[in-house]
Amino acid sequence: MGRRYKTYQAETGVTYQYFFDVRRSVVRPEGQGAGSDFAFVLIADQRPPFVLRIFVAERALAAWRDAHRRDLTANEQYAAAKMRLFRAFDESERLRDEPLTLEELSQEYNISRERVRQIEVRAFEKLQKSIKNLSIERRIGR
Question: Domains of the chain: which residue ranges?
Answer without folding.
Answer: 1-98, 100-142
